[in-house]
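Support request from a user on the community tier.

User writes: "When I paste my structure tokens into the form, the page sometimes reloads and wipes my input. The last time it worked, I copied everything first. Here is what I submitted, just in case something in the input itself triggers the reload:"
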């Protein structure tokens, strides 16, 4: 039976030690390194013995989970990252998936859910928690259904300014900042947002990001 090598990146020592103990109880997994932040990970990760999976905290000093996940994706693209976080906000979810995370799960999950998430990421390549499923996967499946019905390409209903707004919506900028960048009023930006929600049958900014990634408007 193959054992998957795991690295833990978590700045709270007590929680990290608890995770080490928990993961070591999963027979297919072995913790090979534990660090407190991304900077320490970049210094201690051995290129000759790379892990299969990294459990990544988000809020860490020196080098947080977003920048660390981006670094892992650029430097060691074969390593899969599972975000383990206290945050379930749209912004946190968007940023981690754009950074390259393959899954996102809450720290207060049951041990069995963590095991399932790790299995999914290592064996299937991805995992979505209930939180992410509710906000992202429904949108993805919605467009899979549209394609299966051979309906029109949804990009064809968007004009150039709406596409420009959509690209900005996939960043960390607020709607007010997007308005300034596009030299438009906040009310006009709200109009673009509402028009996209209506045209694409979406309800949230996360849905817009998912649509943009799926249709190649932005990359993750």
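"...and here is what came back when it finally went through:"
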């Amino acid at each position: 039976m193959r054992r998957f090598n795991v690295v833990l990146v978590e700045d709270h020592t007590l929680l990290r030690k608890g995770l080490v103990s928990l993961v070591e109880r999963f027979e297919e997994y072995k913790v090979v390194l534990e660090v407190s932040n991304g900077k320490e990970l970049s210094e201690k990760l051995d290129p000759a013995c790379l892990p299969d999976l990294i459990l990544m905290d988000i809020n860490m000093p020196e080098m947080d989970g977003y920048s660390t996940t981006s670094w892992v994706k650029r430097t060691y693209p074969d390593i899969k990252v599972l975000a383990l976080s206290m945050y379930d906000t749209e912004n946190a979810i968007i940023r981690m998936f754009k950074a390259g995370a393959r899954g996102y799960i809450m720290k207060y999950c049951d041990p069995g859910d963590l095991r399932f998430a790790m299995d999914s990421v290592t064996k299937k390549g991805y995992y979505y928690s209930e939180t992410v499923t509710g906000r992202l996967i429904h949108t993805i499946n919605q467009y899979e259904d549209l394609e299966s019905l051979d309906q029109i390409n949804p990009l064809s209903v968007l004009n150039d300014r709406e596409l420009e707004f959509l690209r900005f919506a996939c960043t960390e900028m607020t709607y007010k900042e997007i308005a300034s960048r596009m030299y438009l009023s906040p009310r006009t930006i709200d109009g673009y947002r509402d028009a996209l929600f209506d045209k694409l049958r979406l309800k949230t900014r996360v849905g817009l990001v998912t649509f943009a990634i799926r249709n190649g408007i932005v990359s993750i």
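Agent notes: The reload is a front-end session timeout and is unrelated to the input. The chain has ten helices and six strands. The chain has two domains: 4-128, 135-214. Escalated to web team.
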